[in-house]
Amino acid sequence: MSRKPTLITPSHSRQGTAQAASALDRELRAAGLASLQPVLDDDRETPYVRLNRIDAVTAAELARLLHKGMRSAYKVVSDLRAAVRAHGLEDFPVPYVYCTKIHLGDIPVATADRLALLLGAPPQPGLADVPDWPEARQVFDRLNSAFAEATRGGFMDMYLHPYCQRCDGDPAISLGELQVRTARRLVTALQGA
User: Which candidate, 93, 27, 89, places its Cα nearest to that of 62?
Assistant: First the structure.
């Protein structure tokens, strides 16, 4: 019979930190990593949990288990890379996983315009090679609306940089982080485009 882990709401109190250390210890033992020993360290104002005695074999096994747990996020990243490549969006940022979210990056306004079209936005007539502020703002708004529609209400932080220093001074749109579920919906929308 499989054991369901006890979920706790962590707090910065001594008791909350001790409960978190105990829960981590229980799960490490269940995963076969009993040599990792979470230790409550309350010498400071805010207590925290330390992991002692991590040798190379244990560290490698911990990395393998974490990677296995993150497999769905890594698959979404791989699928997103393939979907943007299939549509010729060569200057789309390389997505990566960080803190359980899919992170993107800066894209030129022309690429954002093509992405908006792929996601169902109506065409915008005559985008200049180097769009000015009003054109870039229109693309930004179109992409924001098309993204929300294509991902069924998914959210992505986006910022318009009228003069992006990382992009040779051209306007750019920064695409923020996505929840894995939202990124999966984006992949589905791009695959269906």
Answer: 27
Question: Which residues have CB under 8 Å from 82's CB, separation 6+?
Answer: none
- DSSP H helices, the chain, are 14-30, 56-69, 71-86, 109-118, 133-150, 180-192
Strand order in the sheet with 101-103: 96-98, 101-103, 177-178
Burial-class residue 103 by CB neighbours within 10 Å (0-12, 13-18, 19+): middle
pLDDT tens figures, 27-77: 888 777 777 777 777 777 777 788 877 778 888 888 888 888 899 999 999
Considering the domain architecture, whether residues 58 and 113 belong to the same structural domain is answered as no
Global pTM value: 0.77
9 in a domain, yes or no?
no
Write out the residue range of the structural domain in which residue 159 sits. 71-192
Shared-domain flag, residues 37 and 51 = yes
Taking 3-state DSSP, the helix, strand and coil percentages for the chain, each rounded to the nearest 5, stand at 45, 15, 40
Residue 182 and residue 156 in contact, taking contact as beta carbons nearer than 8 Å: yes
8 A C-beta contact, residue 165 and residue 137: no
